[in-house]
Amino acid sequence: MKRYSKNCNFVLKGTERMASENSEVTRRNFLYTFGSAGAAAGMFSFANQAQALGASAKVDDLPTDADGNIIAGFDKQNTQTGKSDKWQPFSDRKVRVGIAGFGLCQFGAQFFFQNHPNVEVIAVSDLDTDRCAGLAKATRCNITYASCEEMIKDKNIEAVFIATDAPSHARLATMALNHGKDVGSAVPAVFGFNAEEDAEKLFEAVKKSGKKYMMFETSAFHGYTYVRRIQYQAGVFGKLIYSEGEYYHDNASKLAGYNPKNGKVDANGWRKGLVPMWYPTHSTAFYVSISGGRLTDVSCLGMPSIYPEFQPGSNQYDNRFGTEVALFKTSEGGMSRMAVSWDMKNANGEKGRVYGQKSLKKNTVNKRPPLPPGVLGGGHEGSHGHLTNNFIESIILDKRPIVGISEALNMTLSGVIAHKSALKDGQWMKVPQYDL
User: Fold this and answer.
1) The pLDDT of residue 37 is above 70
2) φ, ψ for residue 381 (rounded to 5)?
3) How far is C-alpha 312 from the geometric centre of its chain's CA atoms?
């Protein structure tokens, strides 16, 4: 059953949001306790970045495309982390984590679970034996499983991080939740033609299990997003009149991906001819993660691509669009433009901007909070380490994660519905709403 909220009252006034960490902030939970937000940052060299990925890792191990170029997002490594005397330990507990996925981007090891003082990586899995061995080595883990499904059944595992191919995220996350595990998932939360049905199953699994679910959307912890979120919560902007987000990655649909037909990571995997708005969260996070609001209605246009993989019969999605641009209505009455493109030359990266009713006179905070020793910011503008830290804190301190199930589904389904709109020449359509 699809949920459509008639009155999307997700946005609270800034003064109400800042009232108390144990009251309003706990309820909406966007001010997370990491320590002093203005703490000084230390610097680590790229050699330390490689060391954090595993004893045998090298800087050259950062994921590359078929031309040998570092994949977008990983080319902007942020090696800043808080000095050890600034980060305040919050528990002696170690969450027992299982990690699945070490494909093209080696995501399973790129978020520093293996270095977090409150984590013990006790098992890893990948469908490919060589990749599984690589993940085990990078995370310093001795137990491996041939599949994520097998790993999920391990009763010693408390939480799983799912860094597998996008089409499998929802299914594996739902299975893990139903087995009593907390779940961290790479983006997007749901994917493909069955995204809306999968969203329903995933949402119900979170509700029934009572476990934490967090989507590791990197744009939620870019430096810009973090600062603007704190400012929004302080009432600096008033309501947001206009916001925008964009994810531009020329030739991204040509990147290798897991191919279920042969079990390999190759050029005919899930990324070939990828629908732009089926991978929307690097864009949509620039509204949802800053304001805590929701994208409610959408009109989207798509432009057919000249690239071969978007020609008729060339991809499994019957998709011809290399670029899609959507205009959304927001839950606070504003407008938001979100764009995703795989075929625009001289355009790249993840960027966003927000504009409100009030003049932005000064910054209320200018740094992200410190991270535990050994946990680096990492890729996607230094967001990786912060996402892992937030997920682990949400489990140990029983807090709402930065991108919980409601936020994850809004960021993702808004794109799924946007693509439907593009197929109907921009017809306005409602975005299903899930609030937990």
Assistant:
1) no
2) 60, 40
3) 31
Tokens coding 103 = 């494909």
How do beta strands 335-341 and 321-330 pair?
A: antiparallel
Beta carbons of 20 and 54 less than 8 angstroms apart: no
Ramachandran area for residue 12 (φ above 0: left; ψ -120 to 50: alpha; else beta)? beta
pLDDT, tens only, 135-179: 999 999 999 999 999 999 999 999 999 999 999 999 999 999 999
Burial letters for 10-40: b for 16+ Cβ neighbours within 10 Å, e otherwise? bbbebeebbeeeeebbeebbbbbebbebebe
H or E element, residue 183: strand 182-185
Distances (CA, A) of 281 to 347, 352, 408, 409: 18, 12, 8, 10
Distance CA 144, CA 153 (A): 13
233 and 87, same structural domain? no
Looking up tokens 């939970």, which residue turns up?
Answer: 29
- pLDDT by residue (tens digit) across 4-29? 543 444 443 332 332 222 333 332 33
Tens digit of pLDDT for each residue in 96-109?
A: 999 999 987 898 99
Please indicate, yes or no, whether residues 208 and 223 belong to a single structural domain of this protein: no
**Of 160, 195, 218, which marks where a domain is finished?**
218
DSSP assignment of 197-232? HHHHHHHHHHHHH---EEE--GGGGSHHHHHHHHHH
DSSP string, 47-107: HHHHHHH-TT--GGGS-B-TTSPBPTTTSS-B-EEE-TTTS----S--EEEEEE--STT-G
Q: What is the mean pLDDT of residues 423-436?
A: 97
| Block residue for tokens 């013990």 | 120
DSSP lists the bridge partners of residue 429 as: 298
Q: Which of 157, 191, 218 is the last residue of a domain?
A: 218
Residues 6 or more apart whose CB falls under 8 angstroms from that of 85 comprise: none
Cα dihedral: 39, 282, 336, 288 (round 10): -50
C-alpha dihedral sign at 48, 184, 96, 139:
negative
